[in-house]
Structures are given as structure tokens and as C-alpha cells.
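Weekly modeling sync, notes
Attendees: S.R. (lead), two postdocs, one rotation student

Agenda item 3: backlog of single-chain predictions. S.R. asked that every request posted to the team notebook include the full sequence so nobody has to chase files. The rotation student volunteered to paste the first one in as an example of the format we agreed on. Action items at the bottom.

Example entry:
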Amino acid sequence: MKKRTWSRSGSAEIEFTELGFGTAPLGNMYRSISDDDAQRILEEAWSFGIRYFDTAPLYGLTLSERRLGDFLKTKDRGEFVLSTKAGRLLRPCGPKDRTGIGQWFDVPNMRQVYDYSHDGIMRSFEESLSRLDIDRVDVLFVHDLCIFTHGSKETSDRRICEFMAGGYDAMVRLRDEGAVRAIGGGVNEWEVCQTLAERGDFDLFLLAGRYTLLEQEALDSFFPLCEQRGIGIVIGGPYNSGILATGPMKGAFYNYSPASDQILDRVGKIKSICDDHSIELKTAALRFPLLHSVVVSVIPGAQSVDEAESNGENIKRNVPVALWNDLKAEGLLRKDAPTPN
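Predicted structure, as returned to the notebook:
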């Protein structure tokens, strides 16, 4: 597995595998899987050389962190890179009051409490270490400061201010003390990432679903800012919630919801060009984000051994230059998106 190194002014240095593993599906997202199946999926990912794993307290309402921790305790700590997130505290509640009914299945009865304060971030970090049963993580991301999560720009902006007034100092302190090697944000919107980058000293951002074959608006200003400041980007959601893996089939999901006819049509055109070059749509979707110099890893999830195997096989395949050229010629990819000459 190829690796990419992110470094901060010659001090902190983190080596990411180009293909990482996003563990939201291991939190029983949309359907339940067993503990044994989760371990088999992680073993399959490891066998392909994946050494970067991302999780969060939210995923499965603590289930993902616990399952990943059970797996990683069987591995040498120096062999893998681990990131988790902070900004939500998970607290026990009754079954009817738990967070994510209809999204998370067969998970602990927990409700989320947003807390971006100094003490909230520290408490979240400590609880994550306990669930992961580990003494440190490599990267800590502040989680979901976006409009998508909080419902309006006004609320998102208020949460950002809350974080910058308290939680940000906690994350800087954790980095300064060596408890984490890098800090950043895990967000669904590049605009929020840019706001954070302009207001603080961040190392990495996990941008979910916003730099894919379907979306490249982050090229306008956010990615250039990252290039200027040496900020690395982890790309989550490379399949845009599934449609760039399944293709434009009936019921395909885009951005956590059923895809519109417009999106289905666009994906159909992208897939047609991929077919012309005998390349799977999924392969192009995984390879595309890695063509940009600021991207250090792309982290699809998997909810079965077959999905994990498919990700591992597709990342190894080469995509012909002509495919990218054809996508640009048809207006399906931005002209300024980095692609090979």
C-alpha cells in the first residue's frame, strides 16, 4: 500500500496509507453487523495494507470506537495511524430518547450532547481513549461544526465561536503536550473547514463528501489555502454516500438521501465514460481525490468483507489519463482539477 507523509514544519510527521478506513459503518449504520463480522472486516482491510483508521464517538454511539479498539489492541501501536473526533459527549438514556433512531441499529442507548467547550473537548478525548483502550491517538478532529449537522448557518457559526473560545485551546494543549500529534476538523462542508483554517492553527482536515467526482467546489479557495499553509486533507465519503460505488441505480444514495434525477443523470454520464475506458466507477471515485497534492488519504468505509476487499483492489488499479481528459471535455470534471498530463 502506497503511503503519503504529512509533516508540520519538520517536527510532527505522520505517514498515512493512501487508502484508509472510515469506521462509521462498523457502528451499525443503517444495518446491524456482529462484533465478529466487524473484526473480520478490519482484518481484511489490514491484509490489504491499510494502516490508517478513523473513528468517532458518534459512530454507533460508542460502538465503532469499542470495536476498533478491540481490533487495534492486537496490533503493534507503531504500525498504524489513528484518528478520532470530539465535540459530542454520549450519555446513557432510555431507548426512546437515544440519538440516531433509524440511522444506528442495535447500538447502546445513548444521547448526544454537543459540547465544544474546553472541558467538553478534554472529556470527549479522555472517554475516547478509554473506549479505544489506547494511550494516544495521532489526530484529533473537532466534529461536525457544519450547517448540515446544526441546521442553520447561524447555529453553525455559534458553535464555531463556542469551539474557538474554548475547545480549540484544549486541542492545541493536547498537541503541545504530545497527547496527539495533529489537530483539525472533521466536517461535511469545506466552507466551515476554511473558516476554521483562517481562525486557528490547524494541521489536517477530514472533509467528507465535498471533493469527489461529483463535487470540486473546494478548489475555489479552500484547497489553495491548504497548499499555502501545508495543511493536509483526508477525504471521507469518496462515494458521496454510495452512488459513486453503486452507480445510478434506483434507490442510490447521495449525501445521505436518495439521489435526485439530476444527480442520477450526471453519475450515469460519468459511469459511461468510465465504461468506455474499462474502468469501474468505484475505481475512478477512489483514485480521483488522491490526484490533488494536499490529499493524504481517502477513507471509504465497509460493512462487509467483500466491500473491504473491493476497496483494497480498486485503489491499486491505474486510471488512464484519457479518462480524466474525457470527463473534463464533457464538463463532468472541473478543468482545474489536478489530473495527470
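Discussion: group reviewed the output briefly. The chain is about 40% helix and 20% strand.
Action items: rotation student to repeat for the remaining queue; S.R. to check formatting next week.
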